[in-house]
Amino acid sequence: MSLPTDAVVALEAFQTVGSWEQRARLLMQWGERLPALPAEDKVDANLVQGCESLVWLVGRLQDGHWQFAASSDARLIRGLVALLLARVNGLSAAELHSVDLPDWFDQLALSRQLSPSRSNGLNAVLQRMRDLSSNT
């Protein structure tokens, strides 16, 4: 499966940095680029269950392709979520269900820095995306 354009951009950016410090800085920058989520979307119904940090997620189907928006109260999580959005935005429901999260973060060379709780949280975000795409 070919990657969405934003995912290719993310991969190229992360493959050019060598040290963890540079990668962490880049991760924060990706998080800062996330568009602000409107206050009306920051409601309990949009909170992702299973995250230690607060993560809000909304999604909509547009011409058969999913577009998600998200926000988090934690800077590092915001960056990780931004990279997840880069990987999944524009996918169909079927493509969304076949996304391999560990593989994606391996490709970005970030998997070693994902604690079990962060991994679980990101999996919860992806599962919520899949749930939203199944309910249409």
TrEMBL record:
Family: Belongs to the SufE family.
Gene3D superfamilies cross-referenced by the UniProt entry: 3.90.1010.10
Alphabetical list of InterPro entries matching this protein: Fe-S_metab-assoc_dom
SUPFAM superfamilies in the record: SufE/NifU
Positions of the Fe-S metabolism associated domain: 12-131
Superkingdom classification of source: Bacteria
Annotated protein name in UniProt: SufE family protein
A Pfam family of this chain: SufE
